[in-house]
Automatic annotation (TrEMBL), chain A:
Protein name: UDP-N-acetylmuramate dehydrogenase
Cross-referenced SUPFAM superfamilies: Glutathione synthetase ATP-binding domain-like
UniProt organism field: Tessaracoccus flavescens
Limits of the Circularly permuted ATP-grasp type domain: 76-453
Domain of life assignment: Bacteria
Compositionally biased intervals (Low complexity): 483-494
TrEMBL record, chain B:
Origin superkingdom: Bacteria
Name listed for the protein in its UniProt record: DUF403 domain-containing protein
Occurrences of domain DUF403 (ranges): 1-292
Source organism of the structure: Tessaracoccus flavescens
């Protein structure tokens, strides 16, 4: 039936998204059939084309100051419409709960008085920043962009691995991956109705403009980057370019009198919304680390004065804390009165004596993670660790129980991946991106970033640890497929012109100005 | 426009032009040493180094030092690398196509790839890539402030390099075909012969390269471009003189070239060209004070109180 997938390993411990025990899963047969039609040789040569495209375009990320192309795999990860609808609803719910939680802990603290989460869990988080207590943003949004890491265990159920509500990265690769895949596999992409990802920059810009301080009708939005040596610099530049806003470094900004301005060739220009991709600690040397040259002194003061919006808000890191993660299902019930849509991974809180005891007994079969780590740093996978490493870990846990959590080893799901010219199962995760525009609504990017761990059996998919990525295709619903013609017509009518809302805005304002002018002249 | 970005664009312009012109200068030098059997090669190479502001060497290796040695600050490989680094910093401002062509150029020359090409194809490759990039910049970027800074950088570098090239025939004035080489070094040989015929004198050649109003690499044409870019960048409708020191410097240099008595053109050529190089340095200084100063890093002095 299928040449490409014939000798592909089946019935392994991990759930494979494309090939089940009885061959290619029914929903994905058409994708497999199209790939088959091309043949292995052709697919290999397309894969080579993909990597050369990325080198020419400079689609890279930096490891230790060295630019490397980001490996993109030729086989897409395909999600059905209903499958993604579930992820989408769950992500939305989680962001709403996070917003409520962050707002609560920096103002009233109802969750503490009602006993949902102990106060010391929040107060002891290294990312809980008292300087922003009581700071309320212009449109009430703190999580402007979230990237929620999801994994699928051997039962095929999506589980949240961690929440990223500080400054999640990777969305640029979603957009470049799609463009590259469309040119590498036009035959396959063209046969399927894949939900587009190009709306992301305009949705982000809309959300950022909506977050502007009140009274500013034409806000200046900037993207703040740590500079070219940051591993995600490519992404910062791409987002700035696609949104049509300035990409600035800390030294381009100057704060004075509770306002922030840009140094331009024509003097200083006020800034209203800063989409920052710098960590809290480096953002404002006057409040946080005094030796940081990346930020701008006085930024936080300006934000407190309500003259500039920092997106994402300062202090969001509390919600990323992996100890707080264990309370999120309760927080969802408490704030939203709903049951969590997305499942979580079972987690032991090492602060609790019984849990700690159990975990210390079973260190060699669990995954232990630092609560404030990101990018796979500091994670110890029990079954793979040496006795020395486990011993060191045991001492660290006993010294600082608050700093660690433990989880069972989850077999991440696999997707066929081109390795040395053959398709082989490799572990993947998924990071859907959520943009919260406040009253503009919450937008979930169809699909998200699928990261793939390229070494065999590797479970850590982070790009800084030698990971690659895949294009994530979300197929449109069955009804749309049935009446493709109608759907196409409907789409043509509601053509997604980027920034259409802004254009409408501008037209309305223009009319308004004209009316005012004519009003004056008649006086 | 951000000061930092303006700065980056200005230097992209300069570095690309420097790469191209260095390439032309070395090409002229090699042809010259082939054409003239009496030439002292070491002396000629050292003269060339002097021209590029480099110390003399006992065993000068022109190709390494000026072409493919990444560690040498005057090699065109280094210039291409710097242009690429500046472009990376201004990546959201230069058009995608310009960035891609700068990036592919850099990828094609780095890591010793340039060294492996034959010199003739290396020169051709670099010249053509530079032409592709500036062509793309002209046709895919809005001719706004950013483009003006790019043009300004390119023009100032071109004035600087052309003036250096014009100093070569006097250095090796014993060579008969010196001016022919200089003309080809500026890519002007064809245009010159078309205009003056094959029997033209040295003075005609000097005049053409300095004062021709229609040839885009002549000094006067380039000075005009630089002054016009500055005029567009600054405030318009000024009543008295321009308030921009860079514009005054370049304008004055243009006037002194333009109104030079015809028989003095060749006499003072080296001095005149040296003065022009000083003007380029001063103008760059003035431009960076006026437009880029904001990009200087501000330091926060915090700590214990």
């Amino acid at each position: 039936m299928s040449v490409l997938f014939d000798d592909y390993p089946r019935g392994q411990a991990a759930y494979d998204e494309m090939v089940g025990p009885d061959g290619v899963r029914p929903a994905l047969r058409s994708v497999a059939a199209e790939l088959d039609r091309l043949g292995l040789e052709e697919v290999r040569s397309r894969a080579e084309y993909l990597s050369s495209v990325y080198i020419d375009q400079g689609v890279t990320f930096d490891i230790g100051g060295e630019e490397r192309p980001f490996p993109l795999d030729i086989v897409p990860r395909v999600m059905q419409a209903d499958e993604f609808a579930h992820v989408e609803a769950g992500s939305r719910q989680r962001v709403r709960a996070m917003e409520a939680f962050l707002d609560d802990i920096y103002t009233e603290g109802r969750c503490f008085t009602d006993g949902v989460i102990p106060r010391h869990v929040v107060a002891s988080s290294p990312h809980f920043h008292r300087p922003v207590a009581g700071l309320i943003t212009a449109n009430g949004v703190r999580v402007h962009v979230a990237g929620i890491d999801l994994i699928r265990g051997d039962d095929g159920v999506y589980r949240v691995l961690e929440d990223n509500v500080r400054s999640p990265s990777g969305v640029s690769y979603v957009m470049t991956n799609r463009r590259a895949m469309n040119s590498a596999l036009p035959e396959v992409a063209g046969k399927h109705r894949i939900r587009p990802v190009e709306d992301y920059p305009s949705e982000l810009l809309k959300a950022l403009r909506a977050a502007a301080p009140s009274g500013i009708t034409e806000p200046t939005v900037v993207v703040l980057t740590p500079g070219v040596y940051n591993s995600a610099y490519f992404e910062h530049a791409l987002l700035a370019r696609m949104m049509g806003v300035e990409l600035v470094e800390g030294r381009d900004l100057v704060a004075h009198g509770g306002r922030v301005s840009l140094r331009t060739t024509r003097g200083l220009r006020p800034v209203h919304v800063i989409y920052r991709r710098i960590d809290d600690e480096f953002l404002d040397p006057a409040v946080f680390r005094a030796d940081s040259l990346l930020g701008c002194a006085g930024l936080l003061n300006a934000a407190r004065a309500g003259n500039v919006t920092i997106a994402n808000a300062v202090g969001n890191g509390v919600a990323d804390d992996k100890l707080v993660y264990t309370y999120v299902p309760d927080l969802i019930r408490f704030y939203l009165g709903e049951e969590p849509i997305l499942a979580s991974v079972d987690t032991w809180r090492l602060e609790e004596p019984e849990a700690r005891e159990e975990v210390l007994d079973r260190l060699d079969e669990l995954v232990v993670k630092p609560v404030d780590g990101s990018g796979g740093k500091g994670i110890v996978i029990g079954p793979r660790a040496s006795a020395d490493e486990l011993e060191r870990l045991r001492r660290q846990i006993l010294k600082d129980a608050r700093g660690w959590i433990a989880q069972p080893v989850v077999q991440l799901s696999t997707v066929p991946t081109m390795i040395d010219g053959q398709l082989r199962p490799r572990h993947v995760d998924l990071r859907p991106f959520v943009v919260n525009g406040g009253s503009e609504g919450i937008y979930v990017l169809p699909g998200g970033l699928t990261r793939v761990a390229l070494p065999e059996g590797e479970l850590i998919v982070n790009s800084s640890q030698g990971g690659g990525s895949k294009d994530t295709w979300v197929l449109t619903g069955a009804r749309a497929r049935q009446s493709q013609k109608q759907a196409r017509q409907a789409q043509r009518m509601a053509s997604p012109v980027p920034l259409s809302d802004q254009v409408v805005d501008r037209v309305i304002r223009h009319q308004h100005e004209q009316q005012q002018q004519s009003g004056e002249s008649s006086c | 426009m951000l000061s930092r970005i303006a700065d980056a664009l200005f230097w992209i312009g300069r570095y690309l032009e420097r790469a191209e012109d260095t390439c032309r200068i070395v090409e002229v030098h090699l042809h010259q040493s082939l054409d003239d059997p009496t030439l002292d090669e070491v002396q000629a190479a050292n003269d060339l180094f002097l021209l590029m502001g480099q110390p003399a060497d006992e065993k000068p290796d022109v190709l390494a030092k000026l072409c493919y040695d990444e560690a040498s600050p005057v090699s065109f490989l280094a210039a291409l690398g710097s242009a690429r680094e500046s472009a990376r910093r201004a990546r959201e401002t230069v058009s995608t196509e310009v960035w891609e062509s700068i990036n592919t150029t850099w990828l094609a020359v780095r890591g010793g790839r340039l060294q492996r090409m034959r010199p003739a194809s290396m020169f051709k490759f670099v010249r053509e890539r530079c032409a592709v990039i500036s062509g793309l910049a002209d046709s895919t970027m809005s001719h706004d402030e950013g483009w003006l800074f790019l043009t300004l950088g390119r023009s100032i570098e071109r004035i600087d390099m052309t003036s250096r090239l014009l100093s070569t025939p006097s250095v090796t004035s014993n060579s008969q075909r010196a001016w022919d080489h200089v003309l080809s070094g500026c890519g002007a040989h064809h245009a010159f012969v078309q205009r003056y015929g094959a029997l033209a004198s040295d003075r005609d050649a000097a005049e053409f390269l300095m004062l021709d109003r229609l040839f885009p690499r002549s000094l006067i044409y380039t000075l005009n471009t630089a002054v016009e870019s500055l005029a567009q960048l600054g405030p318009s409708g000024l009543r008295i003189r321009p308030d921009d020191p860079a514009m005054r410097l370049l304008g004055a240099a243009r006037a002194s070239l333009e109104y030079l008595p015809p028989d003095e053109i060749l006499r003072d050529l080296p001095d005149e060209m040296a003065r022009l190089q000083v003007v380029c340095t001063q103008a760059t200084q003035a431009i960076s004070e006026r437009y880029f100063e904001g990009s200087a890093a501000a330091e926060w002095v915090g700590g214990a109180w």
